[in-house]
Amino acid sequence: MPSKPKLGQNFLNDTEAIQRIAASLGDLAGRTVVEIGPGAGAITGALAARAAHVLAIELDPELVRYLRSEFPADGKPQVTVVHQDVLTFDFLAASASAGQRLLVAGNLPYGITSQIVLKLAASHAAIDRAVLMVQREVADRITARPGSRDYGLLSVTAQMYGPADNLFTLPPSAFTPPPDVHSTVFRWRFQPRFAELGVDETGFLPFVRQLFAQKRKTLANNLRTAGFESAQIAAALDRASIAPNFRAEQLPIEAIASLWKALQPSQP
Question: Which of 93, 141, 167, 225 is 20 to 30 A from 186 (CA-CA)?
């Protein structure tokens, strides 16, 4: 195994946690799993023992060479090591090639966690569920419920694509080299809620960003900053049964959807 990770990776060395991650994806028989950032292949091996095919997406060329020596292309079970940045990986094409929605696992690089989460959300049609390990604070934000300190833009955005729940947390000692933070594994099931809530994906998500632009400001203040008129805001809040002094962090997704619909121009 390469002795010095070039891209700041922290390799998981906890055998029990590795097996728990693989098991948390559910029954993998006959399934194709995409692993993000396989590193030295610890989770890769656990996935390969359960799945029909593992697509291991790795950016570090030295790790790619190591993984290909550990998991030959003609080996059984089948592991394909893909030398690519996951942010450019085509999940839809991989799903079409597999003839099924994909399962995703990974120990996400801390520096681009949010970008990867948004990439997966954009690829939701190709993905069934994911089990991901991220910095504990990020997992808490993704899975947060309304009214909690961590509930915000990332929570609503992620949960619009399906429910997310924290599974377990690991200390720095579970990794080599140990990071400065704890890491949490969470499970995300891709069941988009846009149609259920009657909102348009391309219009609703920018609206959510406007609501959370200044988290400590009231909804009315953030909406005025976004360009809505005071009378329009007051009428929409009334129609959505939301108190005018509420902040975005107090609203469940259903209430945010109601407010968005109340602010849409009336149809002739």
Answer: 93
